[in-house]
Amino acid sequence: MSPKTSWDDKKELITTALESGIDHVLDLEDSENIRKVGNFNIISTEEDADVYLVGIDGEGDGTLELKDNLNESSDLAKAKEAKNSGKTVCAYIIITDKLHEQLAVVLGKVVDYIILVGTDWTVIPLENIIADLQKEDVKLLAAVSNADDAQVAMETLEVGTDGVIFEARDFAQIKDIAGLIDELSTESYELKDLTITNVEPVGSGDRVCIDTTTMMRPGEGMLIGSYSKAMFFIHSESLESEYVASRPFRVNAGPVQAYVMVPGNKTRYLSELVTGDEVLIVDKDGKTKTSIVGRSKIEKRPLLLLEAEYDGMKIKSLVQNAETIRLVDENGEPISVSNLEKGMKVKGFIDDSARHFGMAIDEQIIEQ
């Protein structure tokens, strides 16, 4: 946010940013007022900033010092000192030549965030920096002015920057860029047709219902299963039933030990989910969106064993034994578990990677 913008104008822009899902603001003079508008992470040169900023002055100009030996930069020393004191640190770098590009790589091994500003922006220096820092624990933010620039930054090298930062000019610009980032951040999963081989009751167990803050539509649900690398597509309760009213915010997920897919191609145990956690909503085409858990309910219910097969792989999972629990068939239509029969095909996800603490890794893990 430009220091030259009056607070009255700035307040309206920041309110629009908050409503658009933006949660970080770079501001050098109005952090106290901004915190009254909403719960933002403030990026600033102030000592108590949520993210401590180096490489910028009070006028918003870059100050990173260049020396032939980049490791002697005073701003690098300041960043190291801030990190050692426990701060989250962001470096602001205006890329004007190869030396600045190299400085970004050096700083990227120290700081948590780097804001990259291009005076004569081209894709090439961004590609180089992304490639050099791909294995470092740093988030790259490209300074952009519009949605087109943001798309280039987010898609560069198929990896892209972790985000973008921009000087808010008007409401339309904020909404356009925020909408684009939301769209580009969407994950997609290739759903397979799993062949049902067995369906049978197995007694009772503790079952989890996930109530989200999202009103799901028919065709949407979650990826859930007893195996982290082979999951069934469980449909939401967005359909009417003669027994109960629709609850489009809910997925009757499965027993407490089952996995659910969450953002970042990770999994969580259903029993772990609490209010405020993120989960992944998936549609019948494998497109996803992130939702927040509003409530997780655990109740003892009768369970049903589902067994399926895909390309020689045997897949098992458990769901509540009730007519209102639905999967999705090969045509993308919801089907109640009470109507499942051997030979039917249902949608699911098969992952080539194993998982360790919910993260996909290249390792062999046997689940049975």
UniProtKB/TrEMBL annotation:
Coiled coil: none annotated. Residues 194-368 form the 3-dehydroquinate synthase C-terminal domain. GO terms for biological process: amino acid biosynthetic process; aromatic amino acid family biosynthetic process. It holds the Pfam family DHQS_2nd. GO terms for molecular function: 3-dehydroquinate synthase activity; dehydroquinate synthase activity; NAD binding. InterPro entries: DHQS, DHQS/DOIS_N, DHQS_C. It catalyses: 2-amino-2,3,7-trideoxy-D-lyxo-hept-6-ulosonate + NAD(+) + H2O = 3-dehydroquinate + NH4(+) + NADH + H(+). Residues 4-180 form the 3-dehydroquinate synthase N-terminal domain. Keywords: Amino-acid biosynthesis, Aromatic amino acid biosynthesis, NAD, Oxidoreductase. Its EC number is 1.4.1.24. Belongs to the archaeal-type DHQ synthase family. Catalyzes the oxidative deamination and cyclization of 2-amino-3,7-dideoxy-D-threo-hept-6-ulosonic acid (ADH) to yield 3-dehydroquinate (DHQ), which is fed into the canonical shikimic pathway of aromatic amino acid biosynthesis. This is 3-dehydroquinate synthase.
